[in-house]
Amino acid sequence: MKKSIFVPIIAILCTAAALFGLTMGLKRVAETNAQAEHLKMMRTILPGSTEFTVEPYNGDDANIRSVHKAENGFVIETVTAGYAGNITMLIGVSSDGTVTGLVVREMSETIGLGANALNDHEFLAQFLNTSGGLAIGTNEDAFSGATGSSDTEVSTYVDAISGATVTSKAIVRCVNSAVAYVTGADTGSGATSWGG
Amino acid sequence: MKNKIYVLNTLLAAVLGIVLLIAVLVRTFAPAVMIPALNVPNVVFISLLVLLIDHYVAPGAKRRYISILLLSAVTFSLLPLSAGFVSVMEALKLALVCGILFTLVTWLFSSIQERLSSGPVAKAAPILSAVGLYLAFQCFTGLIL
């Protein structure tokens, strides 16, 4: 009877060994495919770009993880805290500071709420052709002067995803940080530090 | 099968192994696809799936919760670590959290479906228990996060 405990132990060890072997065997293929997909994604969100070079980032903006420079702009990888975990994004910004594309790469937001940011085209499309200074709100907020912060300069209001304000604000922060990097705006100023 | 006590953990290793195998293949050949994290709802889903299979493969199996806890902790830490999805520290966290979670789900599932299995919904008891528990954990996760 006691020998039967070895059955699950052997099953666990064999499965672990199989997974390890497979992972090691496919490692090179996985890296090649991941690099190719990453390059394809960057070319998509920064149209007209071909080659990228990694630029070192030594700034203070904790949202920016890495910067890829192309001939016509930048693709900035950002990581910021969402509702249920970090949200990783790639944001394409042209040399004149205009957002050309963005994509969410990793997130663990609530399914049906924040996770909709992955494929809510209406929400994501709001960011295209903007130049930073974004905040969650409505045009009525702009007219009424309701900005939420006395020293904030907001140029464009975007609608949040229903039921996912925290996720929406996180994405706005990422976009503002990316544009601020390209335009050289001080992230400590009201124009770019507040996402809503 | 004379001794069914450890069938549950064997099935857990098999099911989690298949899930991680699929994840490894997706990561290799479709890197754009976002692989779901091993979070509370997903661990509960896997646990309930394993419990459902165990119910039909080894009905009436006794539960030794200490063994279940230890073996499931090892399973949930070693397999994702072998597949390269977590670091060593994250694997240790998974061992603790998922081990306790799996044991808790097992106890709840066994208790609920035992109550239902003697009533008019006896045939549907395992599936009803599993669905109810999954929804309950979804709500619970939403409350504590």
Defining key terms:
heterodimer, A: 196 residues, alpha+beta, 5-stranded antiparallel β-sheet, two-stranded parallel sheet, 7 strands, 37% helix, disordered C terminus, B: 145 residues, mainly alpha, 5 helices
Characterization of this structure:
The complex is a heterodimer of chains A (196) and B (145). Chain A has 196 residues and is α+β, with helices and mostly antiparallel strands. Chain A has two domains: 2-34; 46-193, no CATH class. Helix content of chain A is 37%, strand content 21%. In chain A, the strands form two sheets. Chain A has a five-stranded antiparallel β-sheet with strand order 1-2-3-4-5, sandwiched between helices. Chain A has a two-stranded parallel ribbon with strand order 6-7. Chain A is globular and about 70 Å long. In chain B, 74% of the residues lie in helices and 0% in strands. Chain B is globular and about 50 Å long. Chain B has five helices and no strands. The mean pLDDT of chain B is 89. Chain B has helices at 7-29, 40-57, 65-82, 88-116, 125-144. At the A-B interface, helix 1 and helix 2 of A face helix 1 and helix 3 of B.
State the oligomer: heterodimer
Series of secondary-structure elements of chain A, N-terminal to C-terminal: HHEEEEEHEHEHH
Number of domains of chain A: 2
The count of DSSP E runs of length 2 or more, i.e. the number of strands of chain A, is: 7
How many H/I helices of chain A?
6
> What does the radius of gyration of chain B come to?
16 Å
* Structural classification of chain B: mainly alpha
Main β-sheet description of chain B:
none
Cα-to-Cα separation, first versus last residue of chain B: 42 Å
So what's the overall shape of chain A?
globular
Helix content of chain A: 25-40%
- Class from helix and strand fractions of chain A: alpha+beta
As residue ranges, the low-confidence spans of chain A are: 146-152, 188-196
Which two protein chains have the largest interface (Cβ within 8 Å of the partner's Cβ), and how many residues from each?
A-B, 35 and 35 residues
Major sheet: arrangement of strands of chain A: 1-2-3-4-5
The topology string of helices and strands of chain B comes to: HHHHH
